[in-house]
Design a protein that fits this description.
The complex is a heterodimer of chains A (429) and B (64). Chain A has 429 residues and is of the alpha+beta class. Chain A is built from 18 helices and ten strands. In chain A, helix 4 crosses helix 11, helix 11 packs across helix 13 and helix 12 runs antiparallel to helix 13. The longest helix of chain A has 24 residues. In chain B, strands 1-4 form a two-stranded antiparallel ribbon. Chain B has a two-stranded antiparallel sheet with strand order 2-3. In chain B, strand 2 and strand 3 form a beta hairpin. The chains are: A alpha+beta (429), B alpha+beta (64).
Chain lengths: 429, 64
């Protein structure tokens, strides 16, 4: 990227730039170039977001790590000053979290929807109820089952029409089947919740649609938890139901945690499968190494980390609000100021990653911030790693002639969604 | 090298187990960090330093 000598003063003297920013045409894997300019010249600076407010945008890797590990930042969406992703997120958060009818008289007046948007100690209390389900050895034990899901879906795709849409035929169903199995949600209902989770992740969804979608999804999961209360099974919904029985969770909290798990494990992983395949197809030398070394667990693990770094599917940044004044990198962030920590551009920070804009599956990319950092770092990351390792080690080995059946730049990229990816990806073999 | 952990801080991301599975594990019940060896040999330094650096909850401390 070329940086003009006066970029710094332009940035510092101008009105806060609008965020999110726009990716460069023809560079679908790279963060918006403006983010790189800011990282170099104004690493903590005000930006303007959709509601006219101007939270701080943090672009450097080390500043983001320091702030995400700092207990003076709140992830609580009900804290005044919280910089919401979109009007949908703002309106649904405010409406759903202020609806206290489901809670007892002792409950706070407002509570965020799920524990990922709460602060400690309540966040830690709820997170720890389901942490063991995502422990490395527990997740690793699921490898044969995930391999079976992936092989079955490849069989189906090979038996179906050629070309096919990789997103619809493979990328979406892999995580859907896995999270359904883990939660105990009948896969037969996948059309219902796939449509619903996609709607909730879309930036073009209206607040009314989002609330309606949320209510339908919540009603569905509430029904399943009700079933587990009378007939326990060996799944995560049963774990949540047991916490309802012991009064450690309200039924509403159990439903919201189930929804967060269903949502968190679906679109993110699906986007990584399709976009990761696209990135490898565009880097044939790297793809060839993955194909010929598909049995090399270390190389496959390193490929997954590098694609997580390079693609940075969560594209709207981590959102926080300061609870106290914080001095960092010569800037004073005041209590009540919103912050956006842009993990995509941190993952391209040359201070941490050599030649950061190059895809290199042999590098150690494990310091990427795609799963966040601090106490809120993604709980499902071992499951995401497992699914992606199985997918990347299997898909190109089983379909070595896999190719894009359209032009790269003609693909519908998810520039308008919370998580980056492609809506459709026609492939042939 | 001396390794100490703070299980109360642990958020169960599992990165230490991936970096050094012979040194770190997770408790069956809560998924929080469990130290298998508190004074690992010098040959394990690199992996253990990585585990400490990656830990999102900063629950791993090292002393020479």
């Amino acid at each position: 990227m070329t940086i003009h000598s006066d970029t710094a003063s332009e940035i510092l003297n101008a009105e806060p730039p609008e965020y999110p920013m726009v990716r460069a045409s023809g560079c679908p894997f790279d963060p918006p170039p403006m983010l790189g300019d800011l990282r170099a010249h104004a690493p903590i600076t005000r930006v303007r977001i959709w509601d006219g407010s101007s939270p701080w945008l943090v672009t450097r890797h080390d500043d983001q790590r320091a702030l995400l590990a700092d207990a003076r930042l709140s992830a609580d969406t009900t804290t005044p000053g919280f910089p919401y992703d979109s009007p949908v997120v703002a309106q649904s958060t405010n409406q759903l979290s202020s609806d206290g009818s489901h809670r007892g008289a002792a409950a706070p007046a407002a509570e965020p929807i799920a524990f990922i948007n709460m602060d400690n100690p309540e966040h830690a209390r709820q997170r720890r109820m389901i942490t063991s389900a995502f422990a490395i050895r527990r997740v690793e034990a699921m490898r044969p089952a995930v391999q079976q899901v992936v092989d079955d879906l490849i069989d189906d795709m090979l038996a179906g029409p050629n070309p096919a849409d990789l997103v619809d035929a493979f990328a979406m169903p892999v995580p859907a089947r896995v999270i359904c199995e883990m939660l105990g949600v009948p896969y037969a209902d996948h059309d219902f919740f796939q449509t619903h989770t996609s709607l909730l992740a879309g930036r073009t969804t209206t607040p009314e649609q989002a609330l309606q979608t949320f209510a339908e999804l919540a009603g569905y999961l509430d029904g399943l938890i009700g079933e587990r209360l009378v007939a326990p099974a060996d799944d995560l919904l049963t774990t949540l139901a047991e916490y309802v029985t012991t009064c450690d969770l309200t039924r509403r909290q159990a439903v919201n945690t189930a929804m967060m798990l269903l949502f968190g494990g679906q679109e993110t992983t699906a986007n990584m499968i399709a976009l990761g395949t696209l990135a490898l197809l565009e880097n044939p030398d790297q793809l060839a190494r993955v194909q010929t070394h598909s049995g090399d667990a270390d190389l496959i693990a390193s490929t997954v980390e590098e694609l997580l770094r390079y693609l940075s599917v969560p594209q709207g940044g981590r959102r926080r609000v300061a609870l106290e004044d914080i001095e960092i990198a010569g800037v004073t962030i005041r209590a009540g100021d919103g912050l956006i920590l842009a993990n995509d551009v941190a993952n391209r920070d040359p201070a941490v990653f050599d030649d950061p804009d190059r895809l290199d599956i042999d590098r150690n990319a494990r310091r990427h911030l795609t799963f966040g950092f601090g106490v809120h770092q993604c709980l499902g990351q071992p499951l995401a790693r497992l699914e992606l390792q199985v997918v990347y080690s299997t898909l190109y080995r089983r379909i070595p002639t896999l190719r894009l059946a359209t032009e790269l730049n003609g693909l519908p990229f998810k520039n308008d969604a919370i998580n980056y990816g492609v809506y459709e990806m026609p492939v042939a073999w | 090298m001396k390794v100490t952990i703070e299980p109360d801080k642990c958020v169960g991301a599992g990165l230490c187990v991936l970096s050094a599975p012979d040194v770190f594990d997770q408790r069956e019940d809560e998924g929080v960090v469990l130290l298998l060896i508190d004074s690992p040999g010098a040959e394990r330094t690199e992996d253990i330093e990585e585990a400490a650096a990656l830990c999102p909850a900063r629950a791993i401390q090292l002393k020479a």
